[in-house]
Structures are given as C-alpha cells and as structure tokens.
C-alpha cells in the first residue's frame, strides 16, 4: 500500500430533493483512501454509504465539499467529465451483478474496453486475471447460464479490465450464498494483494468487511469510526 | 461492438422486433401498392390506347383529364369530315360509358375497328353479331367468371357474351357503338375519334390540319403525345393523393418506431444504467437506439417490398380487370429513405431520454 491518497474527500455533502423536501444523505464526510488500500465501508441502511460510493464513482455530483479521485476533483467536473472519468479511473461491482443480459461474459468484459476506447480485445496480462477469477472457461456463456458467483466474477473482470485506479464494490456478496461470497471476497483480496488494486467495498456483513485493511463505519451521513484489521 | 449490442438486443426480443418490422412494413406496402397501382393502371391504359394503332386522337370538348373520357360530345358527322382530310387513311369514332370505375364499356364501329387494329384475338367465342352482343376481355372474364354464351347484365341491360378477347386493344368491354349511343341517349354522338394517317411522316401535319379544322373546340393530339400524358406527374390529383398516402405512411412509421423504441428504453433502463456506469456517453447511448431503429426501418422496408409483391399477386388474382399493379423499382430507394427518416425521427426522442437517464436511477430500475 502506498502513502499517496488516491481518494480524498473533504466536508463532502449531498442533499437529495424528494418532492418538496430536502433529504441530506451525506453531512460532511472526510475520507482518505491510500493507493493499494482495501477499505470496507459499513453502516446501516440510510447511513449514506451508497451515496458516498456513487459520488466517488462519479455517478452523481456532490452538493458541497471536495472529492478528489486519482488526482481529479470530481466536484468541479461536468457530467461529461465524470462520464469520461468512469471509463478508466473507476470500476464498479454491484450487488445485482449488473451484467448486460444479451451479451456473453466475454462481450460484457469487451464492452467496457470498447466504451473506454481501448478496442474490444483484452491485453495479455488480463488473461492471467481471468484465470485468477476462475472464469476463463465460462466466457462464451450469457449471464443466464452462469451461477451468481460466476456472474459476480465476470462483473469483477469487467470492472478491472481497463486497469482502473479504484475498484468500487457495492455489496458484492449481497446476492450470493456463503460459499460464493467467500470466493468473491478472496478474489477481491487477491486482486488487491497481487495487483495492488485499490478496493473500496460497501457491505453490511462484518465478516466481509474483515477482508479489508481498514473499515469505515458510517451513520446518518457521517463517518463515525475508522478501524484497522490489524487493530 | 455497437453493432453486436444492437443485434443482440434485436435478437433477444424477437417478437417485439418482428412486430415493429411488421408494423413499419405495412405503411411501406401501402405506399408501394398505391404507387404500383397508379403506375400499373396508367401503363395498362396507355398500352390499350397504343393497341388501337391510331396516330392521332380527337377528344370531346368537355374532357378535363387524360384519365377520363368525355361524354359523347362530338357529332358523329365529324368522323366523316375528318376522314375526308388529306393524308387521313381512316377515322373511327368510339363512345365510352363508365360502369364500375375504372371499367368502361366501349362502343365501336366494328368494321372500322377491325380495319384500324387488325381485329380482336378471341380466347372464346367470336365477333359481335347482334346489337346486344358484348365482348369481354380475358381479365374481365377471369374476374367475373364470365364465358362466351353467357348473359350478363350491365347498365340495366342484358348482354349476350359473344366472345372473350385477349386484352390490349382499347377496351375490356366492347359493344356495337349504335347500341351504346341508344342506351346513353347519345345517338349521333361519339366520345373520341381515332385517326390513322397514311404514313408516319404526315402525323404532325395531319394533327396541325385537324387543329385548324376544329379551331380549338376539341383537343387534338398525336397518340405519342396523348399516351405520354399517362404519367403520374401529369395528373395532379394522383400526385396529391400519393403525397397524402406517403404522409400517412410516415406518420404511422414515426408512431410505430416511437412506441417501439420507447418500450425498448423502458425495458432496457437498467442496461442503459450499466452502460452509463461503464462510462458510455450520451451520444453512444443515443447511437445504439438510433441504429436499432434504423435496422427496424430497413427490415420494415424489405418486408414492405416483399408484401408489395403479395399485394400485386392478390390484385392480379382477385381483380385483374379492375386494377393493375406494377412493381415500381424506382420507389424502393425513395420508400427506404422515407422509412429510415421516419424511423430515426421516431427513435430520436426515446433515444434522447435514454441518453439523459440518471445512471443511479437507471441502475435501481426493476
């Protein structure tokens, strides 16, 4: 893990407008994530962890505060700028896998490269990653022919195919049984340890959170605690 | 990869894709059928006029359009007057009576008709023998299941079918001119006069002579001029009708594609969210929707062309005498361009709304 912060948020705030009512989702979040760190974010529903995930991933702008990801200040970026940033700086893994149902696993991975303007063929290094993920033999199948664990591993492959600075995983084991959950978490840890991939993972599950180097606890739109796995 | 995304989308919802193509194909068929009918019927009329073998035509004073005949407004004595003009080999008056439009019964002077055209070729029966005899052409006989020897009632008059003739010479239904004049209360009148000139080099000369003789009271044209008027661009009403049908086709096309692509965008909200999360730009999302709509448009055009052959077969089978439909190849690229434009126009708004979708909301869509 390097000492350089790859994610930095300062007094990050987000207010959603629901009908006529302003609903604060983040109430001033200060967070620093080092390059190569595996950080777990835990907290109850409504604590703001998904909003934090969406802002860091460039899916929505903050209402106030600063968010610097890979040296880029997302708060100052336009929608088009954040769209461009998502192509190569961040990779997403979702609870519901979110694979394109009409495409094979291979094409689901290829589409991420295509959108990033990198051509649709993955590089040689990525072949090793596919072996690490254990899906090399399942690439010609469409999502409905893959198990939940396989789908999530394809989603991980898609998320890292462009070598993003950060891998954002939102409840990656939320739809998996314990065996597949363990396999997916180990894949994330392997990617972090072997490739130095920065991982930010949201989870409800304390066992899953324990895979990270550090865990951030959120409540009511604020970070209330930060603990280290090493104590 | 864009192509693969679009094709897989189309393949994975085959019913929606086929239904959209079918619904786009229907107005394409409508347009091609209308254009084909217009062209086919004009060509058929043109060929039947040419089949007379005349060089010059004199039409009634009340005629307003090439596709209509006038009432019997020419005194029959004028036929003899024309016949006496220099270089005129033969002048023949005929009279027309509309029945079920576009069909006419034509009254002819049989000896002159035979002299000018070489006479009819008979599939069944033989020439007109009596005042109540009628000849029907093969297409009319097929459409109405008529044979030589039968009695048919037209104009509240019973006719004995003397023969079934091959089509291509002036009329589908032919009777003695005198009988039709009597029935129409037009004794001593004809509707138009066909003129045969002694040699082709004198056609223009005779035409000018006749114009001078008739002092502009009756339109006089060479047959070449007259048959050239059997052209869509010469008939204002057909042009306008075609524009109306094309406009209806475009509106249907736009509405079908709009609805179809709106459904696509709804059904694929989550997929659009995924693509946006991967960094797909608005133009990329829009292009996927537009390409898909364009493919539906191309499919609809091809299906519409295939269906137009089906329409032609149906018309030939069911109403060969009343309607003739041509396949007008020149309209294929036009109808393709119209359909493509309608498809892109119809897909633009749904595509734009897809491109503008919020990725978080789209990803949360169930």
Helix content of chain A: 25-40%
The major β-sheet of chain B equals:
10 strands, mixed
* Low-pLDDT runs of chain B: none
Helix content of chain B: 55-70%
Helical stretch tally of chain B? 13
**Percent of residues of chain A in beta strands?**
25-35%
Q: Give the overall shape of chain B, derived from the CA principal axes.
A: elongated
Given helix and strand content, the structural type of chain B is alpha+beta
CATH class of chain A: Alpha Beta
In the CATH hierarchy, what is the architecture of chain A at level 2? 3-Layer(aba) Sandwich
Sheet/helix structural class of chain A: alpha/beta
pLDDT average of chain A, as an integer? 89
Quick one: which chains have the greatest interface? A-B, 28 and 25 residues
General description of the model:
The complex is a heterodimer of chains A (231) and B (366). Chain A is 32% helix and 30% strand. Chain A is α/β, with parallel strands linked by helices and 231 residues long. Chain A has one domain (36-48, 78-228): P-loop containing nucleotide triphosphate hydrolases (Rossmann fold), CATH 3.40.50.300. In chain A, the strands form two sheets. Chain A has a six-stranded mixed beta sheet with strand order 6-7-8-3-9-10, sandwiched between helices. Chain A has a four-stranded antiparallel beta sheet with strand order 2-1-4-5, with helices on one face. Chain B is an alpha+beta fold and 366 residues long. Chain B has 13 helices and twelve strands. Chain B has helices spanning 2-12, 14-50, 77-83, 110-117, 138-144, 177-184, 203-214, 223-228, 236-267, 269-277, 282-318, 331-355, 359-364; strands at 56-59, 74-75, 88-98, 104-108, 122-125, 133-137, 151-154, 157-165, 173-176, 189-190, 192-197, 220-222. In chain B, strands 1, 3, 4, 5, 6, 7, 8, 9, 11 and 12 form a ten-stranded mixed beta sheet that branches. Chain B has a two-stranded antiparallel sheet with strand order 2-10. In chain B, a hairpin with a 2-residue loop joins strand 7 and strand 8. Chain B starts with a helix and ends with a helix. The A-B interface holds A 54, 57, 59-60, 80, 83-88, 92, 94, 98-103, 107, 110-112, 114-116, 120, 158 and B 1-2, 4-5, 8-9, 11-12, 270-271, 273-282, 284, 358-360, 363.
